[in-house]
Amino acid sequence: MSKLRNTNTEFKQVVLLIEEARNRAFHKVNEELVLLYFKVGNLVSEKVSAGAWGENTVEELASFIQDNCPGLKGFNRRGLYRMKQFYETYSSPEFVSTLATHLQKLENGVNKIVSPLATQLQLVDSQVFKFVSPLVTQISWTHHLLILSKTKTVEEKIFYFIQCITQKLSKRELERQLNTATFERTMLSNPIVSALRSQLPQNLFKDPYIFEFLDLPDGHSEKDLEKALILNLQKFILEIGKGFTYMGNQYRLQVGNKDYFTDLLFYHRDLQCLVLFELKIQEFEPEFLGKLNFYLEALDRDVKRPNENPSIGILLCKGKDTEVVEYAMARNTSPAIIADYETKLIPKTVLANKLHQLVEQLTKEDFE
């Protein structure tokens, strides 16, 4: 019996080696495929831009490829123009310079990714291909198509592009982020941090959070909300971000001779700190902040380890008055965030309009 167990363990090692090799092969195939599409898009773009090729020529190319490579998919007229759009989008000066700036911030921050070329903010044409090509091969062609078809601005494209790389989003996860307007909600969340904005990383938190996966009745209690989130923990973590590790609910804190219980406690691997989510089913009230600060102080004194950063608190409320939030946060010294939550999807156009208004307001304030 013991020999059989040992044999099974050895067999599992072989299976693991096979799976690892398959994954490496799949990743390599994806790299070559995406790079091929990028190169073909480059060629088609240059020929069309120079006036050497017209629409009929692209049609002829598609037919020629089918004749010479029977059964090859993706190289019809529509596919070739997608490759052209792919190359032109990712190699445009605006995209390259904005992406380089974002990657430089990431290299200096908590999420270090990709290549040292990210620090080369002044790229000449000959460097563009070397800079962009190793980046675009890190995600699949399907991911690229989703980003290209469902985003408008360069900032939005880069946001989801970096999310795919850093969080290793699956196709389904990326679709959810796009459908729930994660970019707009993340951008809208930053002003709510108020005086503590400089202490917290940009583009990590959202406002509002969307919990459309919860099946909650009208008039639900905070306990109902907490239980529903725990039952859907995987989806909840996908919404708040993959860097979060769940530590427990109703986490017990003992202060003096009394016990206190927090709602949802997480640890963030990149921030290296505890993150506490406190749930409120009504609109924000200033007194909520006092209780949150009390919990954060207890966590920092009794739970936080010496090598970890100060704890962060997030109040999830069913609505808030922005002016009340600003007053409450003005003298607050703890890293705290106040955000809305919704149990139904918000139309992306509504969030996009809010973001547009915010940008206009901030631009106006800069000029005053």
TrEMBL record:
Q: Where is the YhcG PDDEXK nuclease domain?
A: 203-349
Q: Give residue ranges for domain YhcG N-terminal.
A: 14-104, 130-185
Q: Show the InterPro entries listed in the entry.
A: PD-DEXK-like_domain, tRNA_endonuc-like_dom_sf, YhcG_C, YhcG_N
| GO MF, one example | nucleic acid binding
Q: Which domain of life is it from?
A: Bacteria
Q: What is this protein called?
A: DUF1016 domain-containing protein
